Amino acid sequence: MREFVSVAPAMRVIFGSGTIRQLKKETASLGMTRALVLSTANQATHAKHVRDTLEDHFAGTFAEARMHTPIEVTGQAVARAHELSADGIVSVGGGSTTGLGKAIALRTGLPHLCVPTTYAGSEMTSVLGETADGVKTTMRDPRILPHTVVYDVDLTLGLPVSISIASGMNAMAHAIEALYSRDPDPVVLLMAEEAIRSIAIGLPAIAHDPDSHNARADVLYGAWLCGACLDRSGMALHHKLCHVLGGSFGLPHAETHAIVLPHALAYNERYISDAMARIRRALSHDSPSTALFELNRSLGGKTALRDIGMPEEGIDQALGLVLRDPYWNPRPIEGPALRALLRAAWEGRPPAAAG
Ligand code: NAD
User: Fold this and answer.
1) Which stretch of DSSP H or E encloses residue 37?
2) By the 8 A CB rule, do 210 and 157 touch?
3) Angle at 93 between CA 299 and CA 231, to 5 degrees
4) Which of 42, 97, 122, 226 to mutate to test the pocket of ligand 1 (most atoms within 8 A of CB)?
5) pLDDT band at 52; cut points 50, 70, 90
6) Residue 240: per-residue pLDDT
7) d(CA 174, CA 218)
8) CA–CA separation, 231 vs 69, rounded Å?
9) Whose CA is nearest to atom 22 of ligand 1?
10) 66-77 pLDDT, tens per residue?
């Protein structure tokens, strides 16, 4: 007998090629006539593109979005919005820029239109992580969810292959954890399987031809679904590990996910038979954790936490932090097995079969 609760958040999503030409119309339908455009410092080209398409709905730019949404940067951006009498926000970029857009929307109530250019998936969630005095805290609030998301495959063509691979693996992690989350929504299970399949097809095709619209569209489409999965399900061991590793050692977000994912899945695999059946189908592989490790490795992705800045003594430090405050997980969190997981991920070894 099935029992579930399914909640679909209200948001408008436009997906395609050349879709940013619709920005003026889309901002107008949110009541914006003076949009503040957000980006990171090295995304000036995209910001300029957006500015041109907004025409007289453009009020100004704030191009200082940074990873992990530091609250002092948010304060400067809010001040800029007031100074320009902005009546809405258009964020164009990866998860860092989306995060800034969410933080401003939460503080000001301004409408937020998001134009994602990586596969992080943040644009689909009502989750915001902010950093104050070096400490990152995460909150969930319906006001954080962007109102409209415009996916334009063209804007992702310039995303370097190495960032694309890590970012695509980061997206897959959202779908994989959604498959074994507590009380899963059946719609999320369908989305997650489709998302994993689409990204697993698209990533090798991007590595082969980064300018392929079809390959880029497969991964961006998958990333959209993955973000929706993240919003509609709880997080487990994989996300806990990544939050601890990112927070404690300043490791790069997407690469950390890409390295940890095969190991976290291997840790859980004997406890999640329904999810494993879906992941096997999606990846067309009998051993999904091996398939994920090989996918990342064969496309040139980093496989060792030590190669992205984690010190060896960090293994015990991270273990302590996870054990002190674990997220719910299908397999109980066992110290020795978790230490073995962290060591394998630190050294870059293939995931071990679940112990
Ligand atoms: P990012 O936004 O920092 O982007 C990575 C780099 O790629 C940046 O230098 C950026 O300027 C560049 N870039 C982005 N798009 C590009 C393009 N099309 N072409 C060339 N360069 C491009 O990183 P990210 O991995 O997208 O996002 C990570 C952040 O998002 C983290 O802070 C993470 O916590 C957050 N996040 C939040 C959620 C959520 O639901 N709240 C979900 C996923 C990620």
Assistant:
1) strand 35-38
2) yes
3) 80
4) 122
5) very high
6) 94
7) 16
8) 19
9) 159
10) 988 999 999 999
Which residue, judged by its Cα, is nearest atom 35 of ligand 1? Answer: 95
Ligand 1 centroid from CA 115, angstroms:
12
Integer angstrom CA distances of residue 230 from 135, 154, 233: 22, 25, 6
Which tens digits make up the pLDDT trace of 62-108?
999 998 899 999 999 999 999 999 999 999 999 999 999 999 999 99
Which alpha helices (DSSP H) does 138-236 contain, by range? 161-179, 186-208, 213-231
Q: What is the DSSP letter of 117?
A: -
Residue pointed to by tokens 């409209």: 148
Which residue type occupies 296?
N
Which helix (DSSP H) or strand (DSSP E) does residue 336 occupy? helix 335-347
CA–CA dist 143, 99 (Å, integer):
13
CB of residue 167 inside a 6 A radius of ligand 1: yes
Q: How many CB atoms lie within 10 A of CB 7?
A: 8
